[in-house]
Amino acid sequence: MQFTWRADLYRRLYDLALHQGVPVHHGHELVDVRDSGTGIRAVFADGTVSEEADVLIGADGLRSTVRRLIDPQGPRPRYSGLLGFGARVDGAGLPPTGDRMYMAFGRRAFFGYQTFDDGSGVWFANLPHPYATWGQVRQTPNEEWLRRLGEAFAGDTVPALDLLRRTVPEALVTAGPMEDLPHVPHWHRGRMVLVGDSAHATSPSSGQGASLAAESAVELARALRDLPHPQAFAAYEHARRARVERVIAQAARTNSGKAAGPVGRVFRDALLPLFARLGTPEKMAWQYDHRIHWDTAVAA
Prior knowledge:
Layout: H1 6-19, E1 30-35, E2 40-44, E3 56-58, H2 65-70, E4 78-89, E5 102-105, E6 110-115, E7 121-128, H3 134-139, H4 142-153, H5 160-165, E8 173-180, E9 188-189, E10 192-194, H6 197-200, H7 209-226, H8 229-258, H9 262-278, H10 281-288
Parallel strand pairs: 3-10
Antiparallel strand pairs: 1-2, 4-7, 4-8, 5-6, 6-7, 9-10
């Protein structure tokens, strides 16, 4: 497994876009679009209007404005019952795990961690919790969340407490509510199309959110390379929908185990050995060994 910090990935992509001459503008809130029939313009809250383009691609995340413009009655994000937390620890105090990340179901929460040769490490936790917005989660001080996480992992055999004790409050990342979009009926309309989380947000439990977004971006680029935009959008959706919704459903099943109650935990723990034997690399290849044949032409 290759570990990459999301901020580092964003910075590499951002720098690559600038290097390729792609202009980037910040501080503009999309509110509407204008389709002239031969092109499309984005309209922003401050009254500015973009230059006309062939298509508008909505890569604007879980609460996508472009998705709302395509389908005002579209679905809202679904809460998994879990809050997400994580941190980087400079002195993990544990031996390196190599290319492995260890994950475990605790009695009251889920924990994962990986440690590196330089002594640092990273951990994440999924804490069952009533729904709270990201803003509400941030209103609780990091010190309090670390205390609650410590209570959740008290008595568990995973090294959660050791890593929590070595985490300074300023390093805690509060990802907030873990949500997904099981099914988005409309991925495109006219000259607008969705990509990434705006079309197929999966819970972080899949570990595939960034991968699926990159895959979809490549497939959309292939389709637009070979076809006019109406056929390209349809071909792109046809190539992606079944795969991404299968990943979303798989992550939702994982979340149900992480948020299981006392009775559910008994059944989950009893069945885990069976799931471990059945979950061979060959059976999981569809999810983690996906290939896109860039040079193959896309048919309408």
